[in-house]
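Appendix C reproduces, verbatim, an entry submitted by the partner laboratory led by Prof. M.T., so that reviewers can inspect both the input and the predicted structure.
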Amino acid sequence: MCSSRCDSKNLETLKQITDHQHQEEKSMNMNTVTRTFIRTFTRTPLWFALPALALLLLQACGTTNSSDPVSNTESQLVEDLAALGENGVFTLFNLRTGEATTDSTSTNWDIGFRGTTLIFNSGSSGPGQGGVVLLDLPFDDVTLAPSEGYQADSADNYAISTGSGTGWYNYTGEGFPPFAILPRENVTLIIKTANGSNYAKLEILSYYEGNPDPTSDEFVNIQTRSASRYYTFRYVVQQTEDLREF
């Protein structure tokens, strides 16, 4: 009898212990689920927010200030611009419009040609706020106009020297080809236009009509050489005011 009662009692005790363990495991599982839920709940809004945040960052990076000036450059080739200098008159040229003009008292011109002499709408030559810088650099290498150093014409001196080897040209004298005016290599004129707000770079290519090859037999022979005082030049003008990029 005692053995039977003891066994029954032991079984009941074992059942209680097992039930208690099951309760603890259930409680632990519930705690785990609760912690997982809380962790997921607290993190979910961040995951939802990340795509929106990334989109906002992309939009911010791609946005430009509408007030920033936009570069607007124009390239021009001018051929056989006559600069005969009859009666001492300069041939005046507007780099912004690409047209010649005759009104020297206005700001509608930027550079003037007469023989080998160049003038700019500045100082003693005109009412403009222009000027020029001569750079010993190839035309294509110049991508930015200087911010300072522009020379204006004066009563005593032109901004660009008219002498051989110091301005835009070389005079060959008895060299080859003889008695010729040839543009100096790798020389670029940086011009501030008459309004003082636009910039252009300019390269003189030829001083002779038709832009002849100076090494050709026809050019070397003075008797067959084409007429002088006809300029061929190329230039790039920045049409956006106060921008110096080319």
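Residues 1-63 form one domain. Additional entries are available on request from the coordinating office.
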